[in-house]
Automatic annotation (TrEMBL):
Residues 1-10 have a biased composition (Basic and acidic residues). It holds the Pfam family dUTPase. GO terms for biological process: dUMP biosynthetic process; dUTP catabolic process. Substrate binds at R62, S63, G64, N75, T79, V80, D81. Gene3D superfamilies: 2.70.40.10. This is Deoxyuridine 5'-triphosphate nucleotidohydrolase. Signal peptide: none annotated. It comes from Kocuria coralli. The gene is dut. This enzyme is involved in nucleotide metabolism: it produces dUMP, the immediate precursor of thymidine nucleotides and it decreases the intracellular concentration of dUTP so that uracil cannot be incorporated into DNA. Its cofactor is Mg(2+). Residues 13-142 form the dUTPase-like domain.
Length: 144
C-alpha cells in the first residue's frame, strides 16, 4: 500500500520507519518550541497525507521522549481520518514538573501508525444481548 504525502516544508525529511518491521513512522517538528513544565503546544510537522479509505492514521507519542523527558501527545493517539488533507500537527505536553523541554526544528516528536478501521452502520436497538461480563465496568475482572 502506498501513502501519498505532500511535503509542505521542502527541507524536512519525509516520515520513515526507523527500522524494518517498525509500525510507526517518525514525524518531525516544523518549528522550534520550548515546552515549559505542564505546558502544551500544537506543533506542525510540515506534511499532509492522503490516508486511504478504510484506514486511519494514529499519531502516537515517542516512547523515548515519554520515558526520558515526560513528553507525550495530549490526545494520544491523535486520529487522522482518511478525508483530512491538512497539515499534520501534534499536540505535545510536557508532563515534567520542573524541567522545560526544547524542541528544535527537525526533531522527531511523534510516530504515525496506519491501521485498518471498520466503517459501521449505527443500528439503534431497545436492548443489547447478554454477556458473561454484562454491565460490570472498570476493575470488574478481579485480576491485577
Amino acid at each position: 500500500m502506498d501513502l501519498k504525502i505532500q511535503r509542505l516544508d521542502p527541507h524536512l525529511p519525509l516520515p520513515a520507519h526507523a527500522r524494518p518491521g517498525d509500525a510507526g513512522m517518525d514525524l518531525r517538528a516544523r518549528t522550534d518550541v520550548v515546552l515549559q513544565p505542564g505546558q502544551r503546544a500544537l506543533i506542525p510537522t510540515g506534511i499532509a497525507i492522503a490516508v486511504p479509505a478504510g484506514w486511519a492514521g494514529f499519531v502516537n507519542p515517542r516512547s523515548g521522549l515519554a520515558a526520558k523527558h515526560g513528553i507525550t501527545v495530549v490526545n494520544a493517539p491523535g486520529t487522522v481520518d482518511s478525508g483530512y488533507r491538512g497539515e499534520i500537527k501534534v499536540t505535545l505536553l510536557n508532563t515534567d514538573l520542573t524541567e522545560a523541554f526544547e524542541i528544535s526544528r527537525g526533531d522527531r516528536i511523534a510516530q504515525l501508525v496506519l491501521q485498518r478501521v471498520a466503517v459501521v452502520d449505527v443500528v439503534e436497538v431497545d436492548q443489547l444481548d447478554e454477556t458473561e461480563r454484562g454491565r460490570q465496568g472498570f476493575g470488574s475482572s478481579g485480576r491485577d
